Automatic annotation (TrEMBL):
Keywords in alphabetical order: Coiled coil
Taxonomic lineage: Eukaryota, Sar, Stramenopiles, Ochrophyta, Bolidophyceae
USP8 dimerisation domain span: 21-105
PANTHER family, sorted: AMSH-LIKE PROTEASE
The UniProt record lists the keyword Coiled coil: yes
Protein name in the entry: USP8 dimerisation domain-containing protein
Organism: Triparma verrucosa
Comp. bias regions, Pro residues: 230-275
Coiled-coil annotated spans: 109-149
Region described as Disordered: spans on this chain: 1-21, 180-275
Length: 519
């Protein structure tokens, strides 16, 4: 039955997506993985004490993944040499699981409280929206009521307002005439319409009575009411100036050259935008294109070997997962050669010499038949068995194989021997290859030798010997070779994570190399 959902499910799912999934490599000591698990455990306990639940959850999940899924895949997991680390990791696992369940319980309480608070805010927001809508409706209704206008007056058909006015004027005339009677005054008459007639004594000395009904209803009133005022005459057109107006710059002379103000500077420095990161998939195409160009220009060539590791399965000759032994043995053969290791010597190492060494080293370390071996263990074994001389060891380099500076350190270490031959065992992406350097005339050539099977022309299967005729071509070859090894999950990891020295053991870009030179 599916487990019931918990309030913190989405929160924990988001945190899980931030946890990287490291891939174990037998080329690195298992002790490094146990040391990392101890650091993660300490981080987890510190985060728990400070109630940093998200950080504690991430560290706990990383610890559990490392102890239960990563370390058990290491070839040295069942070795008796690390029995105490294995037992301690299992005991700490129980502690982490118990504490992790407590953390999840607290997360559930926090997320439930967050949901209740969000629901409360949602309800309050809904009530506020409803109140605002009601208030808006009330204001709109009030405004509509205030904007209502009174109805226009109506008239009886057949009548007109002018007749009502005329009737009122007649009544006023009769009333005024009755006021002058019996007081010895002449009733004033309406003024003549003739402008040339002389003004009488009474004109201009008393207020004139209103006009009579006949005057109001005469043609003169009609002429007044039919009068339409005329618009004033338009102004005369403006004449265009004979010369254009002066410009602003002509009115404000510029200062002399030696008094020119300095250019303005920004008050604050403008931040530079970070350079966009090129996706790894695009870088792979760029590296492949550069490598193809090197081959076309004859700066690089690929040669097929007649054998490869694991081709023989008989006891004592089986070289499966024996690259950690094959690569340094090829380096030894190269340093002993007169002009450079031959194809026959490389094939002899793969089919004949590597098998017995693999059996001896695995038996000594208590490893399974096909377990990968840590390079340092191989180096120690070869020194103890006098296969390699300690004084031929030049140094070790490593880092990010896609970083030009880190790869440049490897090439520099190869070239420090001057005209003498040198060789390196390069450990990358759970595999080991050999790089040999030799002088040919005035040039310095480098061969990258891989014991894994390649599909060559003519459907031939065998190891590869890739020749690079200068250091720049070798760097291009390493970029192409290393990027071609990256899987889709590796590409996703590279795109999401910057290079971190503290986590390099779990980074698919990490490489390590050991360099030897002839004396």
């Amino acid at each position: 039955m599916p487990s019931s959902s918990r309030p913190s499910d989405s929160r924990r799912s988001r945190l899980k997506s931030q946890i990287p999934s490291p891939v174990v490599s037998d080329h690195y000591p298992i002790k490094n993985y146990y040391d990392l698990s101890s650091k993660l455990l300490t981080k987890f306990l510190d985060s728990s004490e400070t109630s940093d639940l998200d950080a504690a959850y991430i560290f706990a999940r990383r610890y559990m993944h490392l102890v239960t899924e990563v370390i058990p895949k290491h070839g040295y997991y069942n070795s008796s040499a690390f029995r105490s680390e294995k037992s301690s990791a299992k005991q700490n696992m129980k502690l982490v699981m118990e504490e992790l369940e407590k953390i999840v319980d607290v997360m559930d309480v926090e997320e439930a409280a967050k949901r209740e608070e969000l629901e409360k805010k949602r309800r309050e927001a809904a009530r506020e929206r409803e109140r605002l809508e009601q208030e808006k409706k009330r204001i709109d209704d009030q405004a509509a009521a205030e904007l209502e206008l009174p109805s226009a007056p109506t008239f009886t058909p057949g009548t007109a307002p002018v007749f009502e006015v005329a009737k009122n004027l007649e009544e006023t005339k009769i009333s005024n005439e009755s006021k002058y009677e019996g007081y010895g005054y002449d009733i004033p008459t309406a003024p003549t319409n003739d402008p040339s007639a002389p003004m009488t004594e009474n004109e201009g000395s008393i207020n004139l009575p209103p006009p009579s009904y006949e005057v109001v209803t005469s043609d003169s009133l009609a002429s007044l009411t039919s009068y339409t005022p005329t618009a004033p005459p338009p102004p005369p057109p403006l004449s265009a100036p004979s010369h254009p107006p002066p410009s602003f710059s002509s009115l404000t002379p510029s200062p002399p050259a030696h008094h020119q103000p300095p250019p303005s500077k920004p008050l604050y420095p403008i931040p530079q935008k970070p350079a966009p990161i090129t996706p790894m998939s695009q870088l792979k195409r760029i590296y492949t294109s550069s490598w193809i160009t090197c081959k076309k220009s004859k700066k690089a060539s690929v040669y097929a070997l007649d054998t490869y590791q694991g081709r023989l399965s008989s006891y004592g000759k089986n070289s499966t997962n024996g690259c950690t032994v094959i690569a340094p043995l090829i380096a030894v053969e190269h340093l002993k050669s007169s002009g450079g290791v031959s194809d026959a010597s490389i094939e002899n190492v793969i089919d004949i010499k590597a098998g017995p060494h693999l059996i001896n080293i695995r038996t000594k370390l208590g490893l399974s038949q096909h377990a990968l071996i840590i390079p340092s263990d191989v180096h120690d074994h070869f020194v103890d068995e006098k296969v390699m001389r300690q004084d031929t060891f030049v140094g070790a380099t490593g880092g990010n194989i896609l970083d030009e500076e880190h790869v440049g350190e490897l090439i520099k270490c190869l070239n420090d021997s001057g005209d003498k031959k040198s060789a390196a065992a390069l450990f990358y992406h759970a595999h080991v290859i050999c790089i040999v350097k030799m002088r040919v005339g005035k040039e310095v050539w480098y061969d990258l030798i891989d014991s894994l099977p390649f599909q060559h022309e003519g459907n031939k299967q065998g190891g590869a010997r890739i020749r690079c005729k200068d250091a720049e071509t070798l760097a291009t070859c390493i970029r192409w070779y290393s990027s071609a090894k990256l899987t889709s999950s590796d590409i996703d990891f590279v795109d999401r994570n910057e290079w971190d020295e503290n986590m390099c053991d779990f980074d698919p870009r990490v490489f390590q190399s050991f360099v030897w030179a002839e004396k």
